[in-house]
From TrEMBL:
This is Succinate-semialdehyde dehydrogenase/glutarate-semialdehyde dehydrogenase. Belongs to the aldehyde dehydrogenase family. It comes from Paraburkholderia bannensis. Pfam families: Aldedh. It comes from the Bacteria.
Length: 492
């Protein structure tokens, strides 16, 4: 990364909370450090928020809601389009900022900026398409109809792995629907979200409509719990772990908030013996190694039919061995550091456990300490089995375990043998098999001969313990709206 590019990223850095259209220090005055995972250096110290700051953000959002919901849809759309234009204009600087605080290679970070911006553009258009219905007359003299209205104040809580895209695809539909927002980004990557809020403010989002507070891992429960207890906050939208999602569901029950939960995944990737193996290898590389395997839709279990197992493994290993690991500052890097030491420790634990249970390390399988404390080699494990921890737990790193299977129904059963159901992938050229397997897989998102699934035009979300609700697409606006039924009598 050039010095000029890093300087442009640093020009976007804000370190205070954004409440009611103003940058404010936390009420405690405390701060916590945001570090570069590649080097460990401190990038900035941001506000350490607590319950009082969360309540102040909710106060601002509640005050702003009546005026914002009353704006015309085309007025909200115009503001979102200006925000989109500002994001696109700052793509290079925002990409550099993502690389600095999250660690992903610069080209991939810039891709995230474009991806996140696409949600803002999409929902700018969707803001003008919030239709109601006229219900066919059931009784003479009565007219029945429905309208859709914004739910109210929305609390958005986002993860560290996509610090721009995840918050953009929550804020954009909320604003499009006429809701106001209080948000808290992940403690590891708040700088991108803070920069995004500044650009939204510059684009004309009125004071109080969008508010954001930051908090460390230890302080986050106090901050979020204030919103859970606040009856004015009518919706929670969260991307993160299933454990935290269940806590949010339990604690929001007291005020019966609307919930959108995009939670953990344990995605299967099935390669049948009639698959195009080269295409399957490339699809797996795209699905698994994006962001170093730190995505919720990464394949965690790769099932390969026994007749093609050795051939597929050899081709995959050859490609994985070529992947280049390094900091985002190196333009040839394809995989950057993991987000923190906890992440690397979990990856190492999973690999060690797999080897203890009979797995063979075909590629990688080690920390890359010469590069820094947070690097782990892209890894392929052969002879994986269900007894291994990585079969039931999300690794969230660049590790591919290969499982062998014989029959189609065996593969589907193993793929579905998980409490999670976010994404699933399979490769086959048999049209009848494609119909059978796509219907049988228990997942909210299915990739058929395709490893790159995400699009602003498609619904993103899971089933089972991967959560509920959908983000993106025309369905993504519904989670921010309530349906009101109107019955007018006396017309006969």
């Amino acid at each position: 990364m050039s010095l000029d590019l890093e300087a442009s990223a640093r020009a976007l850095i804000r370190t205070d909370n954004f409440i009611g259209g103003q940058w404010l220090a936390s009420q405690s005055g405390e701060r916590f450090a945001v570090t570069d995972p590649a080097t460990g250096r401190t990038l900035a110290e941001v506000a350490q928020s607590g319950a009082a700051d969360a309540r102040a953000a909710a106060d601002a959002a509640s005050r702003a809601f009546p005026a914002w919901r009353a704006t015309l849809p085309k007025e909200r759309a115009a503001i979102l389009r200006r925000w989109h234009a500002a994001i696109v204009a700052n793509e290079a600087a925002l990409g550099a900022l993502i690389s600095l605080e999250q660690g992903k290679p610069l080209a991939e970070a810039r891709g995230e900026v474009a991806y996140g911006a696409s949600y803002v553009a999409w929902f700018a258009d969707e803001a003008t398409r919030i239709y109601g219905d006229v219900i066919p007359t059931q009784q003479r003299g009565k007219r029945m109809s429905t309208v859709k209205e914004p739910v109210g104040v929305v609390a958005a809580i986002t993860p560290w792995n996509f610090p721009l895209a995840m918050i953009a695809r929550k804020i954009a539909p909320a604003l499009a629907a006429g809701c106001t927002v209080v948000a808290k980004p992940a403690e590891d990557t708040p700088l991108t979200a803070l920069a995004l809020v500044q650009l939204a403010h510059d684009a004309g989002v009125p004071p109080g409509v969008l508010n954001l507070v930051t908090a460390s891992r230890e302080a986050t429960p106090h901050t979020v719990d204030a919103w859970l207890a606040d009856s004015r906050v009518r919706k929670i939208t969260f991307t993160g772990s299933t454990q935290v999602g269940k806590h949010l569901a339990r604690e929001s029950a007291g005020t019966l908030k609307k919930l959108s939960l995009e939670l953990g995944g344990n995605a299967p990737f099935i390669v049948f013996d009639d698959a195009d193996l080269d295409a399957a290898v490339e699809g797996l590389l795209a699905a698994k190694f994006r962001n170093g395997g730190q995505t919720c839709v990464c394949p965690n279990r790769v099932y390969v039919q026994r007749d093609v197992y050795e051939t597929f493994a050899a081709r995959l290993c050859a490609r994985v061995a070529e992947l280049r690991v390094g900091p985002a500052s190196d333009p040839v890097s394809q995989i950057g550091p993991m987000i923190n030491a906890r992440a690397v420790d979990k990856i190492a634990r999973h690999v060690d456990d797999a080897v203890e249970h009979g797995a063979t390390v075909l590629v990688g399988g080690k920390r890359l300490e010469a590069l820094g404390p947070h690097y782990y080699a892209p890894t392929v494990l052969g002879h994986a089995s269900r007894e291994m921890a990585l079969c039931g737990e999300e690794t969230f790193g660049p590790v591919v375990p290969l499982f062998a299977f014989d029959q189609e129904d065996e593969a589907v059963t193993m793929a579905n043998d998980t409490p999670f159901g976010l994404a699933a992938y399979f490769y086959s050229q048999d049209l009848r098999r494609i119909e059978r397997v796509s219907a049988a897989l228990e997942a909210g998102i299915v990739g058929i001969n395709e490893g790159a699934l995400a699009s602003e035009a498609a619904p993103f979300g899971g089933v089972k313990e991967s959560g509920y609700g959908r983000e993106g697409s025309r369905y993504g606006l519904d989670d921010y709206l309530s349906i009101k039924y109107l019955c007018q009598g006396g017309l006969a």
